[in-house]
Amino acid sequence: MKTHYLTALLFIFLISGIYSPLKADEDKPGGHEAKEFNASEFILDHIADSHEWHILTTKEGKSVAIYLPVILYSKEKGLSVFSSKKLSHGHVHNGYRLEEEGDLKGRIVNVDETGRADEAGFPLDLSVTKAVAAMFFSALIGLWLFLSLSRSYKKTGVSHPRGMQSFLEPIILFVRDEIAIPNIGHHKYERFMPYLLSVFFFILINNIMGLIPFPPPFGANVTGNIAVTMTLALFTFVIIQFNGNRTYWRHIFATPGVPLWLLPIMIPVEIIGIIAKPFALMVRLFANITAGHIIVLSLVALVFIFKSVAVSPVSILFVLFMNSLELLVAFLQSYVFTLLSALFISLAVQEHH
Amino acid sequence: MLLSNSLITPEVGTVFWTTLIFLIFFLVLRKFGWKPILSMIKQREEMIKGSLESAEQARKEMLKLQSDNEAIIRKARDEREDILREAREIRDKLIAEARGKANEEAEKLVEKAKTSIGKEKTKALSEIREHIANLSVEIASRLLGEELKRTGAQEKLIDDYLEEVKITGN
Q1: Which chain A residues are Cβ-neighbours of B18 within 8 angstroms?
Q2: Claim to verify: residue A85 and residue A153 sit in the same structural domain
Q3: What pLDDT, in 10s, does the model give residues B124-151?
């Protein structure tokens, strides 16, 4: 177990070594204190993805952040990998600039010699952003958790659950007995168990990691990132299409009991139905987690809005309450995502009756 | 609202990394995580089910054994009774037989003794008679002062007297 902690620490140091984190910016202009506190900007900055992992801004206006790797590809300049520190505060590096204001805030654009943004083409941005880094850590934690669980099962053999088993096994059994078997049925559920468990715990770990405010890799908004939820929903989508049986496809392209002349209407409707299912998954998870983060951040922002420490007890109490609720939501949303995935899969694999 | 616009616009890079990370997460766990865990859980469930069933069966068997045992014990007790009764009968028979034999033996002995006593008695009586005869002759000769000649007539006389004595003496 110790070695795992060591690898995690090593990884953090590796990142810090390459991307020079926790270094105060010297060139930040002072006088930030005078700036009016903007609650919506504060909240959205926390929720949105970014190329650096902002930790804090000192009194002198210096920002302390972990600078994440930027990976860009464009036809003219090819692949370029560098630290996002080189793009901080509007610096141009290798003809790229990270926009800080306006429509394209947070995006990396091509700029010409005069410093004008080239609106026509964006580079392909494969940067390891805050969400990606946090997700990476969540995945590592999940892998560590379940690989060691699997090893402990191998070691103890068939015995009563002990240690971590007694904590994780009920959740695994819950996914199996309450989600997979009731929806997909006894005969076919086993094939989908690895996916359902993976997606359940992936979302759950990311949700919980996002609720812990500090330090990195906690506190990122991973499952409240539309790209992440979209990808997960696409996985479910792909699994549904690959496992759809004859009955499933016949219902889409030749719905039984529907007159032939209605098919030109029915087929598009069915296709919309196919797309709507993962779309619902995507939006539900995104909206719930983002909403939770927004509420918690708004309650924290109350202190700054009122500019008074006296508000903090109220704020703390409400945040505590919201965090408890969000912990429930973290479980609930991973449950709902998995449940609906299982339901959609079952619709695609069920036999005609 | 441009900020919120970026919130709901999926970034290609994030999609790429999510796909990669989740795929690795899924594939690694499918092979090394979920399969062993689920199979072990299933094995355990089957074992528990099997154990419960065999326990139930064992319980039934034990009940059966118990009733069997009781039957055996009952039978053994009956047998013991029989054997004891038989033994008692044999004993009684043996004792009775032994007693009969002993009685017979004793009677025989007594009989034998009686006959031999009778014989001895007759012999003794005849000896005594002879003796008495001699004595009487002697006494008579003394009394008469002369020696009587032992003749057949005198002896016959004495014998007759003695016969009379015997008869009256009896």
Answers
A1: 132, 135, 227-228, 231-232
A2: no
A3: 988 988 888 888 877 877 767 555 565 6
**Does A140 contact chain B (CB < 8 Å)?**
no
Is the CB of residue A162 less than 8 Å away from at least one CB of chain B?
no
A98 closest CA partner among A77, A76, A82: A82
Instruction: Tell whether ipTM is more than 0.85.
Output: no
Question: Which of A98, A126, A172 should we substitute to test contact with B (largest number of B Cβ atoms within 10 Å)?
Answer: A126
Under a CB-based contact definition with an 8 Å cutoff, are residues A78 and A94 in contact? no
Q: Does the structure show a pLDDT above 90 at B111? A: yes
Indicate whether A70 and A101 sit together in one domain.
Answer: yes
Residue with tokens 């069997």: B68
Are the C-beta atoms of B4 and A226 separated by less than 8 Å?
no
User: pTM for this structure?
Assistant: 0.73
Overall size of chain B counted in residues: 170
Q: Which of A127, A156, A186 is the last residue of a domain?
A: A127
Q: How many CB atoms neighbour CB A44 within 10 A? A: 18
A170 CA: distance to closest CA in chain B (Å): 11
User: How far is A221 from A48, CA to CA, in rounded Å?
Assistant: 7
State whether A163 and A44 are in the same domain. Answer: no
pLDDT tens per residue across span A150-172? 888 888 777 777 778 888 888 99
Domain of residue A255: give its range: 131-349
Return the C-alpha torsion angle A62, A64, A66, A68, nearest 10.
-20
Phi, psi (deg, nearest 5) at residue A55:
-105, -55
Q: What single-letter DSSP state applies at residue A117?
A: B
